[in-house]
Design goal:
By secondary structure, the protein is an alpha+beta fold. The protein has five helices and twelve strands.
Length: 181
């Protein structure tokens, strides 16, 4: 399993999504009719950037042609969904949390994949090589715009250089937004 955490600007988040879509990736970000996955397009990037929280599943034809599987949960009148992390030919999971600060929105973004997947036939497979390649390329792209910062006793995240340069209170803001202080 691989995973990386970032705190980036809205512009960086939108640029990342543009690049992934333009590379041919399919990004499942919502459901409708309780069963169908809605895929991100260039015109819907602003919609997902406006959400307070999002969980998206990235697939690319070089490693998976299936749709992400979803699970719907109910608690009284509240209903929510989640992409099944282990199911399918493989996907990269991106979790997003949007924070509003005095200087503008920050986006906490975690990107990763699991150590195995279970195909529809029930076979256990390792993460495809192209999935790992796309994950590493995406993580390296974000890392190139960030510096690794210790935000808690043992917790580090990659923080956008643009945030560090524009917000004198970036560390306390990130700690407060992360629930560390």
């Amino acid at each position: 399993m691989a995973s990386s955490e970032f705190v980036i600007t809205e512009e960086q988040y939108q640029e990342l999504l543009h690049g992934l879509i333009n590379s041919g990736s399919k990004i499942g970000y919502d459901i409708f009719d309780r069963t169908n996955v809605r895929y991100l397009s260039i015109s819907s990037i602003a919609e997902i950037a406006a959400k307070e929280r999002a969980s998206i599943a990235l697939k690319h034809p070089s490693f998976a042609v299936d749709d992400p599987e979803i699970e719907i949960y109910n608690n009284g009148d509240v209903e929510w969904y989640s992409f099944k992390e282990l199911r399918g030919d493989g996907h990269i999971k991106i979790t997003l949390r949007r924070f509003i600060t005095d200087v503008g929105p920050y986006f906490y973004l975690a990107i990763g994949y699991t150590s195995f997947f279970i195909t529809k036939s029930g076979a256990h497979i390792q993460p495809p090589k192209n999935l790992i390649r796309i994950y590493k390329k995406t993580a390296r792209y974000l890392i190139s715009q960030c510096t690794k910062e210790l935000i808690g006793n043992r917790r580090s995240v990659y923080v956008s250089k643009a945030i560090i340069d524009s917000d004198g209170n970036w560390l306390s803001n990130i700690r407060a937004l992360s629930g560390i202080i």
